[in-house]
Amino acid sequence: MLHKKLTLVTTLLLFSCVTQASALSVEELRIEKAIKTIPEVFTTFNSNISDFEKSWQATTSYQDAKTMVTNQSQRLWLDATKQLQSANKLDDRPLYWARLNASKIMRSLEPAFSVSAEERQVLIELFEQGSRGRTDLEYTKKTNKKILLTGFDPFLLDRNINQSNPSGIAALLLDGMVITHNGVTAEINTVMIPVRYKDFDDGIIESLLAPYYALNNVDMVVTVSMGRKEFDLERFPGKRRSVTAPDNLNVLSGGTRDKPIISKLHNRELPGEEFVEFSLPIEQMQKAQGPYEIIDNHKITSIGKAGKSVDAKPYTLAQLNGHVAVNGSGGGYLSNEISYRSIRLRDQLESTIPTGHIHTPRIQQFEPEVEAKIVKQIKAMLEQALIAL
């Protein structure tokens, strides 16, 4: 009888482990493949993750866990920015995979105290905040201007597990940098944004930007993502999702070209007009020297009064009255959506902060030399913009 009870207990424990492992996110489940394909990416922050795992398993209370997770996540962000800013080869991938390793540890290993599912999720979200630069947004330099810039994680990783994202490199390289042009100086602070629809629906962009728009306490908000062949400054972001490409959790937008959908904001439809217009100093930014053209992109797709989706190139926002957005200038994916949400919020809060989106040239998987040129030209755009702020 005792043997049977022990066997039952062992079976239950094994079942519990399997159940816990199955709770890993889609992003975390890619780690095993990534380690086999790009093992060199995981060596950069080995010590950070090793320290985190030991600290997590040794933590004896929820409050101590919150402190530890906050400190370790902030350390990872600062180490990532310092490492990339001093590296010969620019690479945003080590931070992305290190963050996932940390969240995998929190999901699959137990600390030295009884942690509830709700507490575990809070701790994972705390690590997300710190390791994305959200808790490192103080402007400490004595400059004339302040710039807030966002980049994105790598995405479409089931197509290319070794994919990099130039916008992520821009965020890591430019964080804390002071730029100058014609005697005007500016400090740049940056944040890394996840490629996940749910985070957008939960208001990640609004919670990040609302304090700045409410107080008008920065001088420019620039969102950046990877896009097409050249640089595109996206003139008319649209409200709706219309692409069939998945996010990093393999969740689909739900929208198509024929039936674009409105995203959510805290379980309600996102408010706002179908199209908004960006306000970056485009003429100045187009003067930035580099290998790529900088396009003032007006192209959109909308459903007009005839009920059919059509491509157009309007030159004023008024021309889009009565049209339903399919693709904004930035497309129908999250790069367009971050632009739409930031501008919509700016307008709602009656802010005067110039705001808009830069689509970078697209890269194939990982091209550090090309990405260095891309980020150099982004920096030049920001410098040129200073005289118009």
Biggest sheet: strand arrangement: 2-3-1-4-14-5-10
Note the gap between the termini: 79 Å
Q: Round the mean pLDDT to the nearest integer and report it.
A: 93
Backbone CA Rg: 22 Å
Strand content: 15-25%
Chain oligomer state: single chain
| CATH homology superfamily name of the largest domain | Peptidase C15, pyroglutamyl peptidase I-like
What's the CATH first level of the largest domain? Alpha Beta
Largest sheet: 7 strands, mixed
Proportion in helices? 40-55%
Extract low-pLDDT stretches. 1-22
Q: Tell me, briefly, the overall form.
A: globular
Structural class: alpha/beta
Total helical elements:
13
Number of strands: 14
Can you walk me through this structure?
This protein has two domains: 21-131, no CATH class; 145-388, Peptidase C15, pyroglutamyl peptidase I-like (Aminopeptidase). The radius of gyration is 22 Å and the shape is globular. It contains 13 helices and 14 strands. With 389 residues, it is of the alpha/beta class. The protein has helices at residues 2-22, 26-29, 31-37, 46-58, 62-85, 93-108, 117-131, 166-174, 197-201, 204-215, 282-285, 334-348, 368-385, and strands spanning 145-152, 178-181, 184-193, 220-226, 231-234, 240-241, 261-262, 264-265, 268-269, 294-297, 300-303, 309-312, 324-327, 355-360. The strands form four sheets. It has a seven-stranded mixed beta sheet with strand order 2-3-1-4-14-5-10, sandwiched between helices. Helix content is 42%, strand content 16%. The longest helix is centred in the N-terminal third of the chain and has 24 residues, at 62-85.
